[in-house]
């Protein structure tokens, strides 16, 4: 007997990119004090008012099977939120509630990619993207971007890889680079999708974390609502990472088919979690939850401006910084391991997010301001010492 290659080939025979993170967790388990700047986990947990709503719902009896597409009130609230933020008419029939954004990524690729189809995604990318695509039997195809372009994709580079492709996955604001795609970038993407008849999967889980410019959903561009599936989540906007609740917004016919997929996979999201999400969407907490990252971005800009070794890629959105450490003579992976060993500071190598980010590291702005400033200052001093040794 053999296991399915969809399972055994999830990582494409290579690394899943999480080695530094796992090493840091081993050190912590052994008693070391490590400053973790690795994953996008808020240092301030889910607001007590949201937890109270969740408890009240559970104690009130909403613990049985919930309606698979999502409870009507939550679907209505998500539709209203999306319509208000994008100007695109959106109703309950356009919304499926999912167990977080990751499940939504898997489901949207199932919906759009025939077996063996090429599925495009932008490099650098969130670490699960290639495995998600392999998991539905499609072939992941990265579209390289460049630091000189602020890691925004060029339409011509997407078009050059589009033969035999069924879908394109984008993420703005972007994890890991912090790039927010401007209108010109998104219009170029839309043109390729029209010309090449591609489905567009738009991961917009960081849409409440925009520090520079404006967030524009490609679903709002002319003719794109019928070919775009938008992924949203409560994880980043409301610090509900462990609650596992998100959504897909798209054409009603597609949502109907995705509901059937949910029935044979997740069988919905717990009702008390949905009720908590409904409360959270009406709580007005988004700005409060985003504020620490806006503040820490300003701290980082000030610290990095005082030195010339570590370069900051413009951080326009999301809770991360992409830093160029090539002046040290090390690639991102070697630098991250060396920093962890020497300073007990854990960051993610750029190579964990694709070859376009080689020679960079990703820093999550997810510890208290003082600790963050201290860690970033020590990181820069460490990099300066390495660079001096290159002379």
From TrEMBL:
Residues 33-373 form the Aminotransferase class I/classII large domain. PROSITE patterns: AA_TRANSFER_CLASS_1 (PS00105). It is an enzyme of class 2 (transferase). It catalyses: L-aspartate + 2-oxoglutarate = oxaloacetate + L-glutamate. One of its GO terms (molecular function) is transaminase activity. Keywords: Aminotransferase, Pyridoxal phosphate, Transferase. It holds the Pfam family Aminotran_1_2. Its cofactor is pyridoxal 5'-phosphate. InterPro entries: Aminotransferase_I/II_large, AspAT/PAT-like, NHTrfase_class1_PyrdxlP-BS, PyrdxlP-dep_Trfase, PyrdxlP-dep_Trfase_major. This is Aminotransferase.
């Amino acid at each position: 007997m053999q296991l399915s290659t969809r399972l055994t080939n999830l990582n494409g025979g290579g690394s899943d990119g999480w080695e530094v993170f796992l090493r840091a967790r081993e050190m912590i388990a052994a008693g070391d004090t490590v400053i973790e700047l690795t994953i996008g986990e808020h240092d301030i947990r889910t607001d007590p008012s949201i937890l109270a709503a969740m408890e009240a719902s559970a104690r009130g009896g909403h613990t049985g099977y919930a309606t698979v597409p999502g409870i009507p009130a939550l679907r209505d609230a998500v539709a209203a939120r999306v319509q208000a933020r994008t100007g695109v008419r959106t109703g309950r029939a356009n919304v499926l509630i999912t167990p977080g954004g990751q499940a939504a990524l898997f489901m949207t690729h199932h919906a759009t990619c025939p077996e063996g189809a090429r599925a495009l995604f932008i490099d650098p990318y969130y670490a699960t993207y290639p495995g998600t695509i392999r998991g539905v039997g499609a072939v992941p195809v990265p579209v390289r971007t460049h630091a000189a372009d602020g890691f925004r994709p060029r339409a011509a580079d997407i078009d050059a890889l589009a033969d035999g492709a069924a879908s394109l996955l984008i993420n703005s604001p972007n994890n890991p680079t912090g790039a927010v795609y401007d209108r010109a970038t998104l219009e170029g993407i839309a043109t390729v999708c029209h010309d090449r008849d591609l489905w567009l999967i738009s991961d917009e889980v960081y849409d409440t974390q925009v520090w520079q410019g404006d967030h524009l959903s490609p679903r709002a561009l002319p003719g794109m609502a019928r070919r775009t599936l938008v992924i949203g989540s409560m994880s980043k906007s409301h610090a509900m990472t462990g609650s596992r609740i998100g959504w897909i917004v798209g054409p009603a016919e597609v949502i109907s088919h995705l509901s059937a997929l949910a029935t044979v996979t997740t069988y919905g999201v717990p009702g008390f979690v949905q009720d908590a999400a409904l409360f959270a969407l009406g709580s007005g907490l988004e700005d409060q939850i985003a504020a620490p990252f806006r503040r820490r971005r300003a701290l980082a800009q000030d610290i990095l401006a005082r030195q010339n070794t570590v370069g900051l890629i413009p951080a326009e959105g999301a809770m991360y910084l992409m830093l160029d450490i090539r002046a040290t003579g090390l690639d991102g992976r070697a630098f991250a391991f060396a920093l962890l060993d020497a300073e007990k500071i854990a960051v993610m190598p750029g190579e964990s997010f694709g070859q376009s980010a080689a020679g960079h590291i990703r820093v999550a702005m997810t510890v208290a301001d003082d600790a963050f400033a201290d860690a970033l200052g020590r990181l820069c001093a460490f990099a300066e010492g390495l660079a001096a040794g290159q002379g």
